[in-house]
Amino acid sequence: MGAGCWLLLASLAATSRAKAFGRCQLAHLLQREGLDGYRGYSLADWLCMAFYESNFDTATKSINADSSTNFGIFQINNRLWCTDEHSPSENLCRVACADLLTSDITDDIICAKRIVRRPQGMDAW
Q1: Is residue 3 within 8 Å of 90, Cβ to Cβ?
Q2: What integer is the mean pLDDT of 19-27?
Q3: How confident is the model at residue 88 (pLDDT cuts 50, 70, 90)?
Q4: Would I find Iron-sulfur among this entry's keywords (predicted)?
Q5: Other Cβ atoms closer than 10 A to 28
Q6: pTM of the entire structure?
Q7: In CATH, what class is 23-116?
């Protein structure tokens, strides 16, 4: 195999780790995973939050003024919800922050459901 083929394979492997969803594609997935109406929040609420937090991109990572970091499509924070190698965390979702950056958003959805079950609800975002 030539160098061009290896480069192409490496590029494809790297892009398969993260994903920028289309609005309709994400809506179908969130509905299938039971978020439409979950804790009183509509599918539109979830889509709006994901759009403003990450523009539907699972690879989104942002650093806050307090030096904490938000991860993934829902921008889940490492202070309380996930664990990484840089900061101590309560890790209430029992997930590695890096796992929130992949194209499989199952763990993101499970964690988002846990977040909205708290008294602050979706205002946590």
Answers
A1: no
A2: 95
A3: confident
A4: no
A5: 13
A6: 0.83
A7: mainly alpha
